[in-house]
């Protein structure tokens, strides 16, 4: 790599020391040979990326370059330990070990690589070659370093006669040449005279025969032809005796080289042609240098003849083509048929090389292409020269396993494309691929110099030379000479004639044969090939089917995916996958580690089965598990630890530096248990960064947010968990709980969680939560009876406290406040300091209108929730000062909870600052994503105070959409009742009472609505129920008194109203009602006193002014009554009593126009008593106008509407009297006096009727006297006073 790239990588690494670019920088440095710097870079990079397999291998590679193999092996061990089942690491390390010739170390690595990738033929080949190398066979081969090339002959060249001989001899010659080179590299000499001889030959390129003759004579540089097939043949046949001659690169002639080509020289089979000028023409590359070749050449040159030194230095440039010959060499016959390859190799395990001086042969005899080895005596195999002497005068170092040299004149000769040979350990070239393919070759072994000798010497004992069995050059030379003596023209003519004749005969025979005869063999071969292929494919498919169609890596990956889903079903499936994985490789430490982790999860989350714990612990003890999977070992130990070992296991986990998603997720859970939320969240974050689909981490985070009441975040976590594991019970239950808290998607939540009730695989730890949320969802759907039945089952279990709270909430929602209160009290017994239980109890008491009991039972030392409830209690009692003090305790960072904001706004409105309250509430509602009902209700109340009825109604109607909000229905009903629409108010008020029968406001409004509609008995039932529910409620007693009053039960009403005023002495309405009851009871003085008290408590109440006006009318004081009615109109423009009273005070004036007005008022009057009042007034107006019939109808309607109202009967009596129906008049007037004993005008009307009958004269006098007593200041009083004495005298007679 260019230097600029190194600098660029260094710049990137300086900018970000944690970047993974350190790998590329280390590779670049290794290519430049800067191994020391590469080690430094790898060390720094791995400190940030401890799991980088490539980084570890590069580190080891650099250490090898520096000659530190022991340290390199340590890095390789760490690379494997990062992920024991990753074939990539095994491939890299196996490759580098093979490069270094460390076959015994590479063997287990390659076996593991083959196990992990059984279908990778490349790795299998490496394993087989490594095994062969250990057994003394050839070294592994990684690239094509040798080949055969058919020699090119010039057009005018004539093949020697020997060329017609069997082509099988040609590969034998190649084998001998190669074996000679490999077996005794030191004997390779630079035959300087070879090139010169080839040049002097002149026609060696053009005429192969001339080259052959030159080679046979051996006179001028014979033994090596620089170029051409003829030269190559000559070198093979005629230079057998030349001692390692090579053609010099420079091509300079050498006399010593010529002498070396003599018959007595050594190792001619090792000779190769070396030229730079004709490298392209020869097709032999001179690149891809290796230093070892040059060193070997130097060694050989140093020990050679004096003339050989001249070409040594010039060979250093061409030594780059050095490579390994340890591979099978394919050979071809002259006809182009491919012969079996020759397996030529050195014994690299022993490292011994044959040396010419000592004559030490290789350790073992290689075998020939047919698999047969030569005999120890040197007998040549079939095809060799029969007359050749195996122990004769051949050059030393011949290979025992090679076949005979090719006969002279053969037309084929293998070319040694590598150019040089070495006895060093094999080196894998970069073209072989892989990260470590560019490792530099190891240092050469340094072959000993070879001394020339004329006679071959075979050492006694020990190893034989690789060239021992090469045939004697003398015999070959003789054969060549004999062949040369034959006349060329005759041989060629005969050959041509024979070939022509043979072709003609073959054509005739082919024309006669059938298709089957011609192609039968091919067809049979094709059929056999198809059958064999089918068998192979069938066997492979069966193997894949037996293994589930998965390799070991695929099975383990599938297992990890199932484990991370963390459900009972997925864990059972993971165990099945692990059993299959162990069948593939029983020794897989990763499979055993995952087995331990799976059983630990089953033990911890699904039943605490001792069998799961036992299997988990047994799996941990399997070889390699603790070393290969430390993270899973730590987590498994925590989950299966007993009481004694639990704390040490947890400490070890929390202190571990393993960057594993399982470790971080479990550590986060432990830290949450220890209340260290910050560190827990950090661990969860690291777990999810390591694996975004870690279901255990997601569910744990969801539960944390659920407890923290961050429900949107909880929903997000649970939904992410369910995306990976849809059936995860914990995620389903948590999601339902979060949705319930936000009141979102309740139907979906119920449908999701309900089936878990019958799921046999539901963990025992989750059964309580499932039952709890199931019951709460049923209650939220309005199925309160089902919810209570379900929740009652868990009230005695481990979650008894939570179930009691849920029962309390369900009771409140169902309106069963007594049941709710009992549940909250039971919860408080379980946890007396629980703010949640105290809040539930307080709200239940508020629902029952027991505000004072709330303040008594909930002490002021509670938390924010308790303070909020106490503030609401004070607000309902109207003590706004104390309410503000309690609500101030709910503030956090100068912010109030929404409910507190609502109560504070109502406090502002009650204290006269309604405008500010309205603005605050409007802004809060506008800013809220989901406006709260309590804010809507508060704003509606403020609008109501401002008499903005339409706006108030809109807020109440919006809040009423929540079917569980009884207060919204109550407020809407009360507003409608206030607006004179009792018929429309009936429905929402009925709903409110159904939702909360103890809600006093709803009961009161419903009772008044029923009274307004004239349904007095039903109203009485409502007030009675309220009174029974809350005996201490002043409102209940007041309402009950009102119903009794309108029912005509005045005595009972007096007692009820007395209790009401006692409980609420500041209640103006109670005093006003008491005044009406006292007047009806004949206590005019007490009635006036009560009215005065009511008027002082609420001086602007229009109903109080109306009642004052009626009191004046009872006295016959029409002027004062008219003023009081006017005051009522002033304070309540829409008050029916005020508008009717103004006309009533002017009786009998008004006429028809007044009657029509009164009729309209009667039609729009909100209550029956107001309607009756209007009808009675209309009857009297019509009576004064003389319309007796219409007056009678109006009077009858008034009595019908208010049968217990004295005014109605008074109007009927006066009309009947005018109609001369004295009996009916007498009854009606008598009833009027009975109902209104303090009504002076009624006594006067009755007295005027009775006085007509002498028998009724005493009663008449009594009535007159009552009139004077009650209305002595009226205009009629003078008349009565004047007539009364005479009447008394008359009655005395």
UniProtKB/TrEMBL annotation:
Top-level taxon in the UniProt lineage: Bacteria
- ATP-binding listed as a keyword: no
- Coiled-coil intervals: none
Region Disordered, as annotated, extends over 252-314, 327-468
Q: Which UniProt keywords apply?
A: Repeat, TPR repeat
- Gene3D superfamilies according to UniProt: Tetratricopeptide repeat domain
Q: Where are the TPR repeats?
A: 87-120, 661-694, 695-728, 801-834, 1206-1239
> Where does the record place Low complexity bias?
282-305, 371-384
Q: What is this protein called?
A: Tetratricopeptide repeat protein
Organism encoding this protein: Pyxidicoccus fallax
